[in-house]
Write a sequence for this structure.
């Protein structure tokens, strides 16, 4: 009886192994396409490529495997002796010369002899018996994140257990991506876009503008840098002697008159931009003085992107404390802050990311800007003053009409005045304290 049981077990094992060899089931479960570069930025042209990951504890011999896209005439036969290491990555490269000009990694094969379509395409991997092992179809339009469509970034798979054909399974990677290794946080992207005003409300037109932020602890000289939107022909060159202080901000405006009308007293600004931003969706790209892309983001004006910045008086606001592993091209990264925005300074914590309270009162204090004191023309239940970093500088309760408030102890710069009326209504006012 014991011998018969062992014989049956061995027979079942043999059948199972034969099934695996026949169908390729085992390998189909241990290979994943984890990164795709289908449309490079023109200044960081790497050619098309994609990355395959082997999560198993054993190397896999890919000799004789076939790579195809949606064009039946495009075929790449993986050369003999090609292995993908246990827990390792292998990059399939369309153009090795262009790829090598940007990367120096050994775990790659190619050239494929064909590239990936910039609009939509399908990547297929077959084993030597023509068994389909992997199939991924991507697109450059929503619901796929279009931050990888010519903006210097790549598609990065979030989780190997998720469906790679689902656009929600992917995130946008860093500039140039991370070929041949696991996703790496974008620690080098310390010059970012932190606020965008792409559509002002009727009656309060500030023109288009956006804000740069220097996340590093050192001053950032951006003299000679270039800014573009989605079109390469829309170009602005940063003037000489332009330096952003540590954790500082700089506003790029399109129309000085309109901007100053809505944002009086903001000094850390430059322009005018020779182009505006699209009200339906656009890109903002930063290039260094050698005209090489170092940062890009892309926004849209429909869900899941917030509706408030779309002509409703608010701006797109980045998080107050962005982290290098957060996806700047995801709608979940962006929110909205105070009504009217916070150009040139950190959005106050009390009205950040969808917690804005009510409208800005256009004339609750005077004079504004002021060099020494302001007057509150109405009685208030309370008011708070926040500096450009969102820190509380002053707080007062039960203020009478006509209260004169000294600013002598405040450093010159922009502030936010938050006021609560006796009936509980909350308003905000940008306040500019100037040197005498």
């Amino acid at each position: 009886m014991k011998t018969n049981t062992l014989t049956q077990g061995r027979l079942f094992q043999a059948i199972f192994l034969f099934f695996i060899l026949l169908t390729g089931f085992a390998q189909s479960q241990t290979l994943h396409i984890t990164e795709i570069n289908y449309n490079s930025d023109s200044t960081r042209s790497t050619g098309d490529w994609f990355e395959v990951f082997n999560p198993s504890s054993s190397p896999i011999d890919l000799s004789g495997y076939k790579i195809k896209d949606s064009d039946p005439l495009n075929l790449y036969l993986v050369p003999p002796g090609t292995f993908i290491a246990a827990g390792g990555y292998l990059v399939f490269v369309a153009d090795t010369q262009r790829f090598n000009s940007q990367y120096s990694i050994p775990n790659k094969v190619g050239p494929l002899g064909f590239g990936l379509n910039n609009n939509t395409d399908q990547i297929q991997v077959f084993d030597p018996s023509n068994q389909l092992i992997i199939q991924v179809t991507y697109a450059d339009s929503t619901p796929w994140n279009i931050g990888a469509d010519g903006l210097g970034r790549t598609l990065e798979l979030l989780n190997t257990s998720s469906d790679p054909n689902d656009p929600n399974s992917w995130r946008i990677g860093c500039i140039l991506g991370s070929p041949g290794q696991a996703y790496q946080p974008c620690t080098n992207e310390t010059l970012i876009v932190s606020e965008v005003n792409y559509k002002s409300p009727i009656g309060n037109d500030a023109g288009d503008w956006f804000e740069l932020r220097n996340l590093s602890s050192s001053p950032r000289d951006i003299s000679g840098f270039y800014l573009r939107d989605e079109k390469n022909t829309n170009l602005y060159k940063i003037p000489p002697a332009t330096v952003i202080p540590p954790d500082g901000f700089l506003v790029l405006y399109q129309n000085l008159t309109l901007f100053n009308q809505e944002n009086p007293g903001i000094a850390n600004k430059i322009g005018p931009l020779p182009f505006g931003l699209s009200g339906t969706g656009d890109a903002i790209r930063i290039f260094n003085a050698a005209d090489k892309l170092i940062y890009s983001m892309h926004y849209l004006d429909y869900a899941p992107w917030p509706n408030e910045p779309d002509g409703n008086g608010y701006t797109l606001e980045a998080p107050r404390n962005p982290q290098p592993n957060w996806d700047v091209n995801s709608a979940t990264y962006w929110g909205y802050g105070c009504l009217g925005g916070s150009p040139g300074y950190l959005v106050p914590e009390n009205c950040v990311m969808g917690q804005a309270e009510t409208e800005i009162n256009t004339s609750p204090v005077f004079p504004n800007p002021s060099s020494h004191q302001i007057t509150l023309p109405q009685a208030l239940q309370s008011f708070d003053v926040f500096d450009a970093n969102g820190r509380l500088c002053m707080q007062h309760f039960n203020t009478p009409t006509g209260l004169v408030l000294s600013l002598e102890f405040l450093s010159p710069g922009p502030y936010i005045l938050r006021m609560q009326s006796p009936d509980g209504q909350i308003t905000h006012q940008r306040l500019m304290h100037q040197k005498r």
In short: The chain has four helices and 30 strands. The chain has three domains: 31-172, 191-351, 373-433. The first helix runs from residue 2 to 23. The radius of gyration is 28 Å.
